[in-house]
């Protein structure tokens, strides 16, 4: 177990290669974060005394227990809960091999919460982190945010939940099951079901909470820019992280977009109406997939629109002295006009 935890710490250290040089000093910001191990409490129940065990968990987590039963696993009948327990016990056991010591995750979350507080001191970051084991049998087990991206996690009043069943490593046996691939998450998404993405997934929920994406139904360029804003804000909250973690691209995909930025933008502007609202076109550039249609299938990432949007926001930021909040609230049209984005 010590070796596994050490490996996690080493990996976190190695991924700390983001935009440190531009990051503000947040060392003076205090974050008091508590980890409440609901997963351990639930899976310590003696199934021979199910009712007593459930009552005990309810006493330990009086405000969250019903949320877990009704909204996360959708089961309240004790007999069905026993079946769920038995079926998902191996998943819990697998999670314990990785997350018995949750401190490396907690440290990463606290670090990002400090940046959130730096930019938005009035925002109430979660004080409690609750790891859980939920279901793995439906796409509905992954929540869809306003920007269209999926997340395994959830936030509520004063808490954030981490669905550990979606962070067991890309080679976890359940993720290779054909039913899982077809009905829950294809491999291009499940390859990110690993510990290094926990913080970025949660920070995406925070950005979505602060600035909900309201661009659905709007023209292509507006959606590109609005979604790009959220990726740009994620950079602010995770300046220490590798860009591959923040974008969700593989390193090969990231290298490709960085090397072909001018070509990507030229292709879009020459072949598409930037103000189209055609669903098929929107899905091509804004939506996850193994690659982007029209580009190299071996190197291009899916969901390339937000990456271009982030580049436009970065160009806009460099020419203005606006706060993060002001940039997030600047209309997409104004951003496009003033950024004068013409990558080579």
From TrEMBL:
N-terminal signal peptide: 1-18
Pfam families on file: GldB_lipo (PF25594)
PROSITE patterns: PROKAR_LIPOPROTEIN
Keywords: Signal
Protein name: Gliding motility lipoprotein GldB
């Amino acid at each position: 177990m010590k070796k596994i935890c050490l490996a996690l710490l080493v990996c976190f250290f190695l991924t700390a290669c983001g935009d440190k040089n531009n990051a503000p000093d947040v060392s003076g910001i205090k974050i008091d974060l508590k980890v409440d191990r609901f997963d351990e409490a639930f899976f310590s129940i003696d199934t021979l005394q199910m009712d007593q065990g459930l009552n005990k968990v309810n006493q330990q987590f009086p405000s969250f227990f019903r949320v877990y039963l009704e909204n996360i696993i959708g089961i309240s009948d004790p007999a069905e809960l026993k079946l769920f327990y038995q079926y998902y016990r191996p998943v819990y056991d697998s999670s314990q091999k990785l997350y018995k010591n949750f401190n490396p995750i907690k440290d990463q979350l606290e670090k990002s919460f400090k940046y959130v507080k730096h930019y938005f001191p009035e925002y109430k970051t979660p004080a409690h982190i609750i790891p859980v084991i939920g279901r793995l049998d439906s796409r509905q087990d992954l929540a869809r945010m306003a920007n269209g991206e999926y997340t395994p996690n959830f936030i509520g009043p004063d808490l954030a939940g981490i669905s550990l069943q979606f962070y067991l490593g890309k080679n976890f046996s359940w993720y290779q099951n054909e039913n899982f691939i077809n009905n829950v998450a294809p491999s291009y998404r499940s390859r990110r079901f690993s510990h290094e993405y926990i913080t970025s997934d949660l920070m995406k929920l925070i950005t979505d909470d602060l600035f909900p994406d309201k661009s659905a139904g709007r023209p292509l360029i507006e959606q590109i820019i609005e979604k790009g804003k959220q990726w740009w804000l994620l950079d602010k909250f995770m300046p220490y992280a590798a860009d591959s973690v923040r974008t969700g691209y593989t390193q090969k995909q990231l290298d490709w977009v960085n090397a072909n930025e001018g070509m990507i933008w030229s292709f879009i502007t020459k072949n598409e109406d930037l103000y189209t609202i055609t669903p098929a076109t929107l899905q091509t550039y804004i939506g996850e997939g193994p690659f982007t249609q029209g580009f190299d299938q071996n190197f291009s990432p899916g969901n390339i629109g937000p990456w271009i949007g982030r580049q436009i926001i970065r160009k806009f930021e460099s020419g203005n002295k606006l706060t993060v909040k002001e940039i997030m609230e600047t209309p997409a049209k104004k951003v496009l006009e003033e950024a004068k984005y013409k990558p080579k």
